[in-house]
Sequence to fold (457 residues):
Amino acid sequence: MKGVWESVKTSLKEQMPDSGFHLWIEPLLAKPDEDRELTLICPNSFALRWIKSNYLPLIRQGLKSACGMSLPVNLTVAPGKPRLSPGTMTWQQPALPLLPDKSRSSFNRAFTFEQFVVGSSNRLAFQASQALARNDTFYNQMLFLTSGPGLGKSHLSQAVGHFLTQSLPASQVLYLSAENFANEMVAALKGSRMGQFKERFRQCEALLLEEVQFLSGKEKIQAEFCYTLDTLVGRGKRVVFTSCCLPGEIPHLSQELRSRLMGGVIIPIGAPDFSTRLNILHKKAENRGVQVSVKILEHLAEYLTEDVRRLESALDGLVARSTLLEEPVSLRLAQEVLQDLQAVKPGLTIAEIQKIVAAYYRMSLAELLGRSRQKRLVRARQMALYFSRLYTDKTLVELGRLFQRSHASVTHALQTLERDRKTQPRLAQEVELLEEKLAEAQVKAGWRRASTPRSDA
Fold:
């Protein structure tokens, strides 16, 4: 079955986003010496559960296509595989797409019109890009998209390229950065190949030039580009520019080139609103083949307001933490990701945590902080101490003072709760429910988790 599994993996790779495939499918190993069933060895128990919930039907279908019949698919964990902890593996976040250079023959396959999430901040840019690509009634064959980083201008530029290459030879749709245009021109000058250079750029069907502000200060290259642009526009060819600046804001640009750039349709792209950010996260999670609750996605969308790349980074980081720690995706993990991205605000106070815990157990603050040894009161105090340690940067000594307990009592309470939650399912459920309530309180009040759990005193 090993050879069959390799064939199935090849098929799955074509159907799945790269990040999902490399994270979940590529590590799976086929158990040898099996002819009538496929047993896949997962790296850890959490991966097994995730694959079973999200990818097993896809694997079964791939196996059926490869073998011509339905065969059983079993999942198991590698024998003797140690439990993963944050220090045992290094998570490599899927690389953000880079601008293609002349050696690249294809666009980022995820950057299509179908994958672009449209919102109020980018709708006009999206519609203009589609119109230009389809050669619909459009007032100009030249489009200038401008925005800050990570807001979708490269996505739309490449989406135009994807669309055009469906009907045109790929060699006739030129996509490159302004820096690469400059580098190619310098190389052509040094190699006495300017004739070839001019023919390549002036005879293309479409030119998609990223980061045009890079031409700033390069007088000879600007002059050559003006001639190229005149030729393309005169032939009715389509041109798309992207830049972080409006044409009038690019310094050290010749008046001739500035005038030509301003002759196109200039459309700025703004930062996505909450609804668009949430839709982007939904789309990215779907593409990666992961299931994340609406509540968690809303929490990420509320804090990550700047650009799409940060949204992708947060989602990938959330899945990575969940996988490596073998924990379900939760609001607490989402808070940790936000803290790493420095997209967070001041955290809960001890008093607020005490109030929430007391309300959950239906007792007064006086009872929570009192000396009674009733079982339910002791457990509530343990919970309040546990979450105070988890959600604040207080030391054990400081917690003892705030809860009117000795250092030894605080340590004992934390150790007892940690031990009991592993053997008592009901207690583990209580911890999870309280954690949700605290995380919800953070969302509503605009708070954040202040620090990760620490072992120092």
